[in-house]
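Sequence only, no structure available. Ideas?
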Amino acid sequence: MQYKLFGNSGLRVSEVSLGTITFGTDWGWGADEKECRSMFDTYANAGGNFIDTANRYTEGSSERIVGDCIKSDRDHFVVATKYTFFDRKGDVNFSGNHRKNMMRSVHESLKRLNTEYIDVLWLHAWDFLTPVEEVMRGLDDLVRAGKVHYLGISDTPAWIVARANTIAELRGWTAFCGLQVEYSLLERTPERELIPMAKSLGMTVTPWGPLGAGVLTGKYLRGEKGRVSATSGQLSERSNRIASEVVASAGKMGVNPAQLALRWTMQQEFSSVPIVGSSNSKQLQDSLGALDVTIPDDIMKQLDETSRIDHGFPHEFLSMKDTRNVIYGGMLDRIVQDKV
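Reply:
I predicted one. Tokens follow.
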């Protein structure tokens, strides 16, 4: 296991994060506590230190199980949890990004995790109601109080994240240093705005769903069953084509498809720490084999081409030869772009 700096901070996190949405059986699927401990130990023994959970995962059981797993060596692990999603359905202030829910949710997470602090607090999803200033001031107060060490933001439009970090910088508040988004060979749309923004602001990207809900393992091509349905949008002619390419490329390399799909997210030209979730320790061990994989340039190129997306306006327009000619007066190739 190698380690990366978390965004533009000095925090060291392992190159793969352990996703714990499967910790607990409250939702009718997932792993019991014994199997969760086995998965945790498998990850920790591989050198992993970055644990991803959330207040909503398995009705709070995920946080409680994680808290039990880390209690013997709390300071070693980097524990990340989230707030936004409801803890009490039907109660208007028990969800959202606002300060009241933020403080209540963090307080409850600290109790379930049985810890005095959260290493990384993620805003789970943007609610489009709470002012950015209220969010950033509240999060900064949590950091100053020592209840939270670092901040991240998930599932939010790029323009909002950029505005939030700009406000934080101008006012001397704590900024987001991590960005969590769905990203895989099946879901590359974050490349349009979110990932370029993260690179520009020095944020680490932690992709969730790097295996495309299991589609990229090839199991649906084999006729196996799972939680993905034909009507979900994740099973389509395009997804089958990409999954088939992953399976074929993995065969050429002598690795399994899950390892190849996971490694693809790790081998990008930006700081990427994918979140790996599993149903059992054997499945997790197989996925962690991606740590020893390097995708050759020719296979990387083929995977990129098979899963290519249209980046839309203005990106496609700005990349056109005629557009670039009028922007640079035909002199772009004469301009040295080395950064000082």
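The first strand starts at residue 3 and ends at 5.
Hope that gets you unstuck.
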